[in-house]
Structures are given as C-alpha cells and as structure tokens.
Specification:
The chain has about 170 residues and is an alpha+beta fold. The protein contains five helices and five strands. Helix 4 packs across helix 5. It is globular. About 25% of the residues are buried. The structure holds zinc ion. The site of zinc ion has 5 residues, from helix 3.
C-alpha cells in the first residue's frame, strides 16, 4: 500500500484502525510525531499526563514504554529529522534543557546517573533526546541504553515535583 496515494482522511482512519503504525509512516517518509500532533494524537494517544515541561520550542515527557523508572524524552516542536539537521540555536538550548532535566530526574528518582542518547534513524523520524536513568543496583555501561522496556506506571508525586522544579503548569 502506498500511503502517499491515500487522502489525508483515509490515512488518519487507517491509523485510527491500527492498520497503519509508526514504522509504516516512517517508511513512507511521513514523520510519525508531526502526524500525531497534527491529528489530535491519533497515533500515540494524548500524553498530557506525562508532560513535565513544555514551551514554544520543546516538549519534555515521561516515556510511555520506559527502559527505566524516570525515562524521559525531550522533543522539538519544530520538525527536524535528526540531530544533524537541527539549527545551532535549538541544539544549544535543548542540551541545556537536557542537563537541567537530567539533574532533576537523578534527584527525584534517586538514580545514580542519567544517560543521554539520540538516534532518529530511518527515512523519516522526529528529533528527540532520550534520558535514561541508571540506578545503583544496575551495572554501569552501554547496556543501559537497551534495557528491556516495561509498562509505564504513573507516579503523581514525582511528576508534581518535576513540574514544579521546571515551572510548568499542566493544561487543565
Ligand atoms: Zn516531525
């Protein structure tokens, strides 16, 4: 199926029916993140409850299928395919934000360290950074980047602590 030949409404419906997923959009050169944001979170679902910070440039949220408690992603509002495409100003700002959030996650979750990675490979993707905590009971090293994912469990207190520290007021 050539997704590019479908009408916009047909494509949205196929995503709603889960007949077209993230990888299909990526392969068709359609950014899943921008598609999701432009279409009322039809692909990933509403994540307002997981957002710990947002401004006109960035969105920072707890990952829905984390590799560690406190696994956070920061994505840009503007579309960039990967880090190699990002303009210098956004690049500087996102790393300063990442540093702040890494310290906050470390403190809030009692992690021993927080790792940072960004990949965004494939024909189409949306630039984001991943911040993955490493706890004292875990070995140091790159295996922490590929720890098995598990189901997200909401911790309202920790979310509140981080939102307050970042001066973020959640949407009502
Ligand atoms: Zn995008």
């Amino acid at each position: 199926m050539d997704l590019k030949k479908l009408s916009h409404d047909e494509l949205v419906q196929l995503v709603k029916d889960k007949k077209v997923g993230m990888a299909d959009l990526t392969d068709a050169g359609i950014c899943p993140t921008c598609f999701d944001r432009a279409n009322n979170n039809v692909l990933f679902g509403n994540n307002d409850d997981k957002i710990i910070y947002e401004d006109d440039k960035f969105e920072c949220y707890l990952v829905g299928n984390p590799r560690a408690e406190g696994h956070v992603a920061i994505s840009t509002k503007k579309h960039f395919k990967d880090m190699m495409e990002v303009d210098d100003e956004i690049c500087e700002t996102i790393f300063l934000l990442a540093k702040k959030v890494m310290n906050l996650v470390k403190e809030t979750y009692g992690a021993e360290s927080v790792y940072l990675c960004t990949m965004c490979d494939g024909p189409m993707n949306h630039f984001h950074l991943q911040l993955i905590p490493r706890y004292s009971f875990e070995k140091r090293g790159s295996n922490n980047f590929v720890k098995p994912r598990f189901e997200y469990k909401e911790d309202k207190e920790k979310i509140k602590t981080m939102r307050n520290a970042l001066n973020y007021k959640p949407k009502e």
